[in-house]
Each structure stands twice: as structure tokens, then as C-alpha cells.
UniProtKB/TrEMBL annotation:
Single annotated GO MF: methylglyoxal synthase activity
Name assigned to this protein: Methylglyoxal synthase
Active-site residues, record numbering mapped to chain: D61 (proton donor/acceptor)
E.C. numbers: 4.2.3.3
InterPro entries: Methylgl_synth, Methylglyoxal_synth_AS, MGS-like_dom, MGS-like_dom_sf
Record's GO cellular component terms: cytosol
Binding site residues for substrate: H9, K13, T35, G36, T37, T38, S55, G56, H88
Family label: Belongs to the methylglyoxal synthase family.
Name of the encoding gene: mgsA
A Pfam family hit: MGS
Length: 139
């Protein structure tokens, strides 16, 4: 069972809802998290239970980032809107940086999300063992 987070900017919310509907069978049985409105929309469209944090601009990205920093998140699907400036851009960059530091797979578009979820569906998601194997020791 993995810990998976969903985040989507306003103009990407329909896209993430449709994506989760398409792969609802894959997400069942995992611990699911989301920022506020995104999680609400997904739960309204599916039978999935999602732990909702605050809206992204109100701190939801940082709440998910805290789980990443504690190495308590396994996968993030974050559909970003690259054509719209976000008022909480520093929070977004901090979250993506934490994912890089911890080696957490993060999809920022549907193409990458599709690849990660298909790997998850195949059971081909042993990245934690690889990351731990090659991660340098902390000083």
C-alpha cells in the first residue's frame, strides 16, 4: 500500500478528476491524500476516500511537502498549469525540491502520470529499494 497525493491547479482540475476516474481501480487500496478542492472534486466523482489538506494557496502544498520531508509519501501527481502564474509559486517549488531530495516520483502532466500509474498497476514500483540502495549516507 502506497501513500499517493493528488494536486491540481484550477485549470487542471477536470483533467485530474478524469485521470483518477480512469485509474480508480489502481488507486483503490492505497492511502490517498490531496489538497482541498482537488480532493473534494475527486471524491465527488469516484468512490475513493481521500485525506484532504488545505487548498494549495492556503498551505496544502506545504502540508503534503511535510509528509515528503518525513519520507511518508510515495508518489505525487501534481497537474500544474504552466501557462498561469501561481501566487504560491514558492510553495510549489519547495514541494518539487523536496520530492527531488527524497527521490519521490512526481508527475506534473498526464503523460508522466500515466507512466507512473501503469507501473503501479503492474506492481513495478520498487523504486524505494533503488533509492535507498544508492542514496548517499547522511552526514
Amino acid at each position: 500500500m502506497l501513500d499517493i497525493a493528488f494536486i491540481a491547479h484550477d485549470r487542471k482540475k477536470d483533467e485530474i478528476v478524469n485521470f483518477v476516474i480512469a485509474y480508480e481501480h489502481v488507486f483503490q487500496g492505497h492511502n490517498l491524500f490531496s489538497t482541498g478542492t482537488t480532493g473534494k472534486r475527486i471524491m465527488e466523482a469516484t468512490k475513493l476516500k481521500i485525506h484532504r489538506f488545505m487548498s494549495g494557496p492556503l498551505g496544502g502544498d506545504q502540508q503534503i511537502g511535510a509528509l515528503v520531508a518525513q519520507n511518508e509519501m510515495d508518489l505525487i501527481i501534481f497537474l500544474r498549469d504552466p501557462l498561469m502564474a501561481q501566487p504560491h509559486e514558492p510553495d510549489i517549488i519547495a514541494l518539487l525540491r523536496l520530492c527531488d531530495v527524497q527521490g519521490i516520483p512526481v508527475a506534473t502532466n498526464v503523460a508522466t502520470a500515466e507512466m507512473l500509474v501503469r507501473a503501479l498497476d503492474r506492481g513495478d514500483f520498487a523504486w524505494r529499494e533503488l533509492v535507498d540502495k544508492y542514496k548517499p549516507e547522511e552526514v
